[in-house]
TrEMBL record:
One of its GO terms (cellular component) is cytoplasm. It comes from Kosakonia oryzendophytica. This is Nitroreductase domain-containing protein. InterPro entries: Frm2/Hbn1 (IPR033877), Nitroreductase (IPR029479), Nitroreductase-like (IPR000415). Residues 38-205 form the Nitroreductase domain. SUPFAM superfamilies: FMN-dependent nitroreductase-like (SSF55469). It is found in: Cytoplasm. One of its GO terms (molecular function) is oxidoreductase activity. Its main location: cytoplasm. GO terms for biological process: cellular response to oxidative stress. Keywords: Cytoplasm, Oxidoreductase. The keyword Oxidoreductase applies.
């Protein structure tokens, strides 16, 4: 019996061993989640030396999205997972689109930023299937205005789930948004269905340099507790 279980047994002597095990296990899982949430940071200095096999990364991303909740269990989230040269190609496409709109005198800094993203091992592009959204709007007309909003909730949850899952594997990541600038190129290059709407792209790779300190606003400006 571990120390936490001993404390639980002292507080609740009538509890069965199974109850003690389940309760303390649940507490440990909760603590583990918060620790993982704290560990997840935006890492810009990424490399290509993944700590696990590419197939493990792919399955981790798939399972994180698969298990992410969505309104009405709509499962509207979609993903394009890019590794190696495919990942680099995405950022080259992005660079060329940015070249069209960034003034020449400022483009060097922009291009260097793209170099940093391309240095990662891979990326996952997050989409929302608009056919699913439209279908729900037609099926549940009373909630029609809400489904686009709930779709945005779904992609946010899916993105966070993937970020946490990658963090658990020791993989760093950062989230970028060059959509809709790159949407047409992505659709054409990887044969993405027209009904998939790009919502963000996450770079991932080995952690070359950690994130800096993270500041938090005061709790009294952020939370209201009523009981």
């Amino acid at each position: 019996m571990n120390p936490l279980q001993k404390i639980f047994s002292a507080l609740f002597p009538q509890a069965t061993p199974a109850t003690v095990e389940q309760s303390t296990s649940g507490a440990a899982m909760s603590d583990n989640f918060i620790a993982l949430a704290k560990q997840r940071r935006t890492i810009y200095a990424l490399g290509k030396n993944l700590p696990v096999a590419e197939d493990v990364v792919i399955e981790t991303i798939k399972e994180a999205i698969r298990q992410a909740p969505s309104a009405f269990n709509s499962q509207s989230s979609r993903a394009l997972i890019l590794l190696g040269n495919e990942h680099v190609q995405f950022w080259e496409l992005t660079r060329e689109q940015l070249r069209k709109i960034v003034p020449a005198e400022n483009f060097h800094a922009t291009s260097e930023k793209i170099d940093g993203f391309a240095a990662a091992a891979g990326s996952v592009l997050f989409f929302e299937d608009q056919n699913v959204v439209k279908g729900l709007q037609e099926q549940f007309a009373a909630y029609a205005d809400n489904f686009p909003v709930w779709s945005e909730h779904s992609t946010g949850i899916a993105q966070y789930a993937v970020w946490l899952a990658l963090t658990e594997k020791g993989i760093g990541a950062n989230l970028q948004h060059y959509n809709p600038l790159v949407d047409a190129d992505v659709q054409r290059t990887w044969n993405i269905p027209e009904n998939w709407k790009l919502r963000g792209h996450m770079n991932f790779g080995s952690i070359v340099a950690p994130a800096g300190e993270k500041a938090f606003m005061d709790d009294d400006k952020r939370f209201v507790v009523a009981r």
